[in-house]
Amino acid sequence: TPKPLSRLTLMLYASKLYPHSYLLVPRLLTPRDPLFSYPALKRGLVRRRNDEERVKQILSSAELMEARKNRDQVQMKTILEEMNTVVYGEGVTPQIRE
Predict the structure, then answer these.
(1) pLDDT (tens digit, 9 = 90+) per residue, 53-86?
(2) What are phi and psi of 78, to 5 degrees?
(3) DSSP-derived secondary structure for 16-62
(4) Contacts 24+ apart (CB under 8 A), 6-13
(5) Is the pTM above the cut of 0.70?
(6) Predicted pLDDT of residue 91
(7) Could you give the 3-state DSSP secondary structure of residue 95?
(8) Nearest Cα to 55, choosing from 93, 95, 83?
(9) Could you report the per-residue pLDDT of 1-19, keeping only the tens digit for each?
(10) CA–CA separation, 54 vs 32, rounded Å?
(11) Mean of all residue pLDDT scores within the chain
């Protein structure tokens, strides 16, 4: 059965004495695992958190409430396109993602 990395091993990876390619597979992942210290992963998590906040702002915006109240399809489409840009990226639609 896989075991978590020891404190000494974690220190060796944190100090960059061991490259990440030396990591054992399979192993028990813990929150302190070196896998979670990749800069790209950290940037991605920050970007995702920001995107989730932006989606919350869109869903609770006064524009959306007004468009729902007035059943304004043009405004609803604009808001949906803005949300798709946040969720899928610039120029990507849900149909393209399928």
Answers:
(1) 999 999 999 999 999 999 999 999 999 999 999 9
(2) -60, -45
(3) TSS-GGG--SS----TT-GGGG-HHHHHHHHHHHHHHHHHHHHHT-H
(4) 10/34, 13/37
(5) no
(6) 84
(7) helix
(8) 83
(9) 677 788 888 888 878 787 7
(10) 29
(11) 86
